[in-house]
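Note to self: keep these together.
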Amino acid sequence: MIARNVENLVRSRLGSVVPAVVLLGPRQVGKTTLAKKIASDWPGGAVYLDMERPADRRRLDDADAYLRAQTGKLVVIDEIQRLPGLFEILRGIIDDRRAAGERFGHFLLLGSAALELIRQSSESLAGRVATMEISPVDILDAESSGIDAQTLWVRGGFPESLLAATDTASLDWRRDFIRSYLERDVPMFAPRIPTETLGRRWLMLAHQQGALLNQARLAGSLGIGASTLTRYVDLLVDLQLVRRLLPWSANVGKRLTKTPKVYVRDSGIVHALLELATWNDVLGHPVAGTSYEGFVIESLIQAAGPQRKAYFYRTHDGAEVDLVFERGGTPELAIEIKRSSAPSVERSFTVACEDLGVKDRFVVYPGAEAFPLRQGAQAIGLGALAAKLRAAT
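Structure:
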């Protein structure tokens, strides 16, 4: 089992901050494994309910009575989006327990559809719930478990793919994962979206990993309208399979790109969509550079935590930064990503850093040694920068 940093965060929130935590993440990312681990040693015991199991749903035929009977226990409810009416019941139970002086650690709620669950929980459980995200295994979790960055990049961070016995078995698992989402989850969350068309859209995003989202051109290539394309992208973002990275848009006196970039969030899914099984397959494909860029961006966003917001920066004159972290409206770090053993600083990066007023400038590359570059930048490995970001959260 891979130890996950988010486990300590969930335990901390449940133990001392809020009565309920909503843990969001795509299927097979490790939500259930993590929740069962927390439940296994929770003081007072725990109950696990899976809303995809008919027997567990029947236990909640009278949900109010059943859940009230679990006083003192942690109740884990998996795939809670299948029973959205539970949120109203949970609100009443939490309020009654608060009135009795029981404030923390009542419910751990797991779900796969971020936007809908956030809406439901914020409407019914405002002030009573913390929303957290679990993503595929990141660079720090992988390194702490003895898994190297190359394997993580090629196979991605879904645990069963990452820990598969062979590259072929890993690719087979990811193919099945993609098919399952298209055949099962898309009809559940968006029944009017044709799964075949969404599958082609997902494939196109993999081919154009990290590209600016050209709605008109992509919609035309799929034979659909721009508004329909937006719905497709929104669904993949909601399912936490795609990241829409927004451009930094503060007034810096320059003409700025205003179109977001789009990344398939897990590099292993990118490679499965493109039928790339091995390290050599990935290196020999045109997507290698942007796949590595997306891999680094996703790892660093996870390490940086929710208090930092992530953007990219690009002007019409060509100044560009792959990843900008800001806090409180002020850019803090500028990060360039180079899949090269001998990285260098380009003038476009230096100009962009001057535009943003950022002094902390890093160039992430596949090596392990950190060393200074021109214009105040520093070359650094992905794991080292991720550790630096996490330590500063």
